Amino acid sequence: MAEQARGRLAGKVAIITGAGSGIGRAMALLFAREGATVVAAGRTPASIEETVAMIRAETGGEALAVAADVAIPADVERMVRETVARFGRIDILCNNAGIGSSKDVVAVEPDEWDRVFAVNVRGVYLGCKYALPHMLAQGGGSIINTASVLALVGAPERAAYCASKGAVVALTRQIAVEYADRGIRCNCLCPTTVDTPWVDRLLADAPDPVARRRALEERQPMGRLATAEDVAAAALYLASDDAAFVTGTAMVIDGGLSAR
Ligand code: NAP
């Protein structure tokens, strides 16, 4: 007889976008350890295939890589269709893929503004648009959107990024209210700076990467950056039945940054 899957997400099917690196990969690995079947979605096939290989090697669990650009409706529709065709359902959707922008409101050009919104906001909208009908038909589901603490506090040279993540928080609340009586929970994550390839890119652009890193750490009340695992742990809570009465929340994972 096949061994029963164990864990807080046993038997659940989770789609995670941006699963080829950073926070998305940490979510994919943690969810798989907790018994979920994981669909790792992202733009770069090699990265998401690597996440799937890591899941299989570590947990022996089922996982599928689906190449998809979250800003393209046909890609997101196919990501959902392939998930349902292969696994029959979608219990958890983590709209995690995102891009940054390091310009003030005067410097940022319309094309960059639109690209940030296409990935960070339209990507979340499209994921919900195509996954929700399946979740509603099966009687419920949990959506977790990766926003940022910069949705809640301002930061210099982040005009498009702050605005886009603010929109993610607002859409999260709207969806939570719309579907609360139909078994759908929708929450978002608001992390401070997370030590992922995202930060590696920030540092690579800095004139003095060591000093820049120190400055980022000193800004944090706990004296360190968040880890991808810190954020994945919050996502696991929101995805699991432990959070059965939690919807519409913007969960801050910032080591106290926004409490100052
Ligand atoms: P990351 O390592 O750069 O991961 C971002 C992922 O998103 C990559 O795997 C990337 O894949 C994918 N992606 C980007 N554009 C995409 C698109 N159009 N379609 C599909 N996938 C796309 O950075 P991370 O730190 O894990 O970021 C994950 C999320 O956390 C983002 O939404 C970000 O805004 C948010 N966040 C990050 C921080 C931080 O300091 N790191 C803080 C707060 C919030 P490709 O490389 O293949 O494009």
TrEMBL record:
SMART domains xrefs: PKS_KR
Keyword tags: Oxidoreductase
Pfam families given in the database record: adh_short_C2
Domain Ketoreductase: from-to ranges: 12-201
Gene Ontology MF: a single term: oxidoreductase activity
NCBIfam families for this protein: PRK06138.1, PRK07231.1
Protein family membership: Belongs to the short-chain dehydrogenases/reductases (SDR) family.
Protein name listed in UniProt: Short-chain dehydrogenase/reductase SDR
